[in-house]
Amino acid sequence: GGQRQKAYLAMLIAQGAQNLLLDEPMTYLDVRHQLELLELLHALRGAGKCVVMVVHDLALACEAGDRALLLHDGPAGGLLASGRVEAAFGVRPRPGGVRFERA
User: Fold this and answer.
1) Helices and strands of the chain, counted as H and E runs
2) Is the overall model pTM greater than 0.90, yes or no?
3) What is the pLDDT of residue 96?
4) What's the rounded Cα separation, in Å, for the pair 47 and 1?
5) Which of 2, 4, 25, 47 is least surrounded by CB atoms within 10 angstroms?
6) Measuring CA to CA, which residue among 27, 21, 63 is closest to residue 44?
7) Would residue 91 be called left, alpha or beta, if left means φ above 0 and alpha means ψ between -120 and 50 degrees?
8) How far apart are CA 2 and CA 94, in angstroms?
9) Where are the alpha helices (DSSP H) in the chain?
10) What are phi and psi of 2, to 5 degrees?
11) Contacts of 93 (CB under 8 A, 6+ apart)
């Protein structure tokens, strides 16, 4: 599965796609390959590509994204403090990191 994910991204790059819409691109990748993929996506963004990805990992969304969308649009860095995570999922972030507890 992980190799397939990487092959799909390679096809997009080879085709010269300007906009990349990725659905859970980290699925089936181990941590090392997740980091490599994030570095590649950042480089593509730096080269003027539009990268949009759907992820269910809130920590990843806040770490990797410039913007995050969760019910309402807003800066990725402010998502955890906005109260939207608690409203959407019934959990709140613990201070000092991306860990959650029941609200």
Assistant:
1) 4, 6
2) no
3) 66
4) 27
5) 47
6) 21
7) beta
8) 31
9) 2-14, 31-46, 58-64, 84-89
10) -65, -40
11) 80, 81, 85, 99, 100
d(C-alpha 29, C-alpha 45), whole Å: 21
DSSP structure class, residue 90: S
Q: What pairing do the DSSP bridges indicate for beta strands 19-23 and 67-70?
A: unpaired
Q: Which of 93, 87, 88, 61 is nearest to 76 (CA)?
A: 61
Residue whose tokens read 């969760």: 70
- Do 79 and 68 form a contact (C-beta atoms < 8 A)? yes
Provide the token pair at 46: 């730096």
Query: Cβ contacts of residue 27 below 8 Å, gap of 6+?
Result: 1, 2, 5
The series of mean pLDDT values per 10 residues for the chain, 103 residues long, is: 84 93 89 90 93 87 81 68 83 72 71
* Residues 94 and 100: beta-carbon distance below 8 Å: yes
pLDDT of residue 68: 80
